[in-house]
Amino acid sequence: MALGTSAYVPSSQAWFKIRKVDRRPLFLSSYSTSAGGAYDVKRSNRGRPFKVLFCGTDDFALECLEKLHANPDICDHIQVLTPADAPNRWERSKKVVTIPPVKSFALVNGLAQHTIPEGGLDEFEIPKEFIKEAESSILLTVSFGHLIPPKMLDHFLWSRRLNVHPSLLPALKGAAPIQWAIARGLQATGVSIQTLGTSFDSGEVLSREEVAIPPSSSYKSLREIIKPIAAERLLFTLSNLQECADTAWKNKDRPNEIEQSHAPMIKPRMTSIRWSTWSASKIEARHRAMGYLFSLRTEIITQTGERAAVLLRDVDLYHHDLDSPGKPLSEQAFQLIKNAEPGELVHDKESNRVLCRCAPEADGNEHIFLQLKSVQTAGKKEVPADQWINGYTTTKGSIRTARFLDAN
Q1: Keywords, A to Z (predicted)?
Q2: Separation of CA 299 from chain center
Q3: What's the mean per-residue pLDDT of the chain?
Q4: Where in the chain is the domain with CATH 3.10.25.10?
Q5: DSSP classification of residue 278
Q6: CB 176 within 8 A of CB 211
Q7: Distance (Å, rounded) from C-alpha 41 to C-alpha 65?
Q8: Is the pLDDT assigned to residue 7 strictly greater than 70?
Q9: Which of 9, 161, 285, 401 has its CA 20 to 30 A from that of 307?
């Protein structure tokens, strides 16, 4: 394939455009990031360019791989290790195989590509190029999802086995740091370059970059912000690896610097709403953090007296004290929702809003409510909330009301 041409490969989330990269040497003296930092690239603390065994899968990892590949003065040899291709959907009665974006990039750009053996990473043989020159060999994982066994780690110096993690370690250690940063209402998160240990996120932190979280960020939007910052931070760390290694610190050595927290893998039960204890802000934050994968879920009693599962496909916050788009809530509806119990719904036809009362806000604000935009009852189609609620309400004057059930 000629330089500048492109190829498209499928992903479970989207189609990724894989392009051949112009590998001109890096001559810039600094890097600018959306976080406002500047990276000084110092070459005095390292010798020849690194050789990198790059372990990754998705588009987040691809951003780092592209950055490395475009800077041969820092990294002049890359080999890629990815999971096996997986058939994960059907199209015209045929299974469609998903090719990891990292693998596609390697194939398009002529990089050696390896696949995790069927027996796991314990059966993977480190390529000889990385065994001969330990000082310049790097083992790097980005969005890999597999624990590197000691057999592989032992082939690399401790400061040469690295991981890119999208949080300010030791905060948000785990599989879903971006999601939990949003779900917990944090104002900032970051990127850390850490060494690889014998368990996930147990290494020493070599380098970190703080990233502000814009209001109303979703998982996907914040991820897009962090991706290029992660790639730049990786390049900075490799350019200053000896200095970073000399000042590295273990998570356990600074327990008071940043509160240690965990970011476990996202599971369906994490979006099951507990109306009696979850505030509207907490519920809406979970929607932004996890709704791309699992919709908010609850239950309601149908007109036949049966429990029905309900998915809240789209929600936002309604601040009664602030100017909100659309017509303001009627006074009658406001009094009903203000005095309602957590889980109770009010449909105000005058403003065409469907609001739900939730548990009190942490700051005591009683005028913040969850606004339903799109809803789906199990076995039925997704519809706008003002249409959906007609089948589940009783009438109080010109206002319709209903009630959700608390999660078990």
Answers
A1: Protein biosynthesis, Transferase
A2: 27
A3: 86
A4: 268-405
A5: -
A6: no
A7: 18
A8: no
A9: 285
Q: Which CATH architecture has domain 268-405?
A: Roll (3.10)
The CA–CA distances, whole Å, from 315 to 57, 130, 333, 373, 406 equal 31, 50, 18, 5, 18
Q: pLDDT digits over 125-165, tens only?
A: 999 999 988 899 999 999 999 999 999 999 999 999 999 99
Residue 375's beta-bridge partner residues? 312, 383
Q: Region 195-205: what's the mean pLDDT?
A: 93
- Asked if 245 and 237 touch (Cβ cutoff 8 Å), the reply is no
For the domain covering 6-253, report its CATH number.
3.40.50.170
User: With the CA atoms of 300, 301, 306 and 310 taken in that order, what torsion angle do they form, in degrees rounded to the nearest 10?
Assistant: -20
Residue 251 in this model has a pLDDT that exceeds 70? no
Q: Report the C-alpha gap between 22 and 107 in whole angstroms.
A: 15
Q: With contact defined as beta carbons under 8 Å apart, do 134 and 158 qualify? A: no
Give the 3-state DSSP-derived string for 184-204, with helices as H, strands as E and coil as C: CCCCEEEEEEEECCCCCCCCE
Tell me the two tokens of residue 384.
């706008």
What is the predicted pLDDT for the residue at 221?
98
Q: What is the pLDDT of residue 388?
A: 94
Measured between alpha carbons, how far is 259 from 277 in angstroms, rounded to an integer?
A: 24
The encoded tokens of residue 276 equal 């009696």
Q: Tokens for 186?
A: 């944090």
Q: What is the pLDDT of residues 43-95, one digit of tens each?
A: 434 568 999 999 999 999 999 999 999 999 999 999 999 999 876 655 555 66
Q: Where in the chain is the domain with CATH 3.40.50.170?
A: 6-253
Q: Which stretches of 202-352 are assigned E, i.e. beta strand? A: 204-212, 249-250, 296-301, 307-319, 344-348
Helix axes 101-108, 59-69, angle to 10 degrees: 30
pLDDT of the residue at 404: 95
Q: Cis peptide leading into 49, omega within 30 of 0?
A: no
Confidence of residue 322 (pLDDT cuts 50, 70, 90): confident
Pick the more confident residue, 408 or 235.
235
Q: How far apart are CA 115 and CA 37, in angstroms?
A: 36
Q: What is the model's pLDDT at position 43?
A: 43
